[in-house]
Amino acid sequence: xxxxxxxxxxxxxxxxxxxxxxxxxxxxxxxxxxxxxxxxxxxxxxxxxxxxxxxxxxxxxxxxxxxxxxxxxxxxxxxxxxxxxxxxxxxxxxxxxxxxxxxxxxxxxxxxxxxxxxxxxxxxxxxxxxxxxxxxxxxxxxxxxxxxxxxxxxxxxxxxxxxxxxxxxxxxxxxxxxxxxxxxxxxxxxxxxxxxxxxxxxxxxxxxxxxxxxxxxxxxxxxxxx
Length: 226
What we know:
The protein is of the alpha/beta class.
């Protein structure tokens, strides 16, 4: 069952959407303006249906504010059909744009398709408190902001996060990331660990085991070095 945040100031439209979706295993949370929408958005929301022309702050600003903290899909539903508004909506992070008037069945079908695709994508994403990793696309986010890692930096972080709470010795890391035919020394591991730590800061999840190797732990109260 998916949970949708419906942001719409027209009572009749809200009632039509709520009635249609509620019969089809959707939970619809209603908001009549942008301020109420921002107070109700949370990580439990699977998708946002967002009107643009509303009193207070408009839907474009609401989209911008949501995107600062959340990655849930956003579908705009608006009577504004001009190209400039639609392009702006997509630039701010909208995933789709439906013009009013619309058929509830078409809106429902779009919501189902996007929610299913989002769920499938989330299956490939691992969350460690403020650190998120998509093992399929090799994307990394810190506090919902994407960061960019060099190829071996990503491989190192992936290896650590796929073996959490496990002591990985320097020689072991060297063999996995650089290969058995690498002729350098273990200082390469320390150098790359330092680079990854800097890029994923403030997530201090990579802990040093003195003279041995490293452990990935996402607990907030763990010491950095052992």
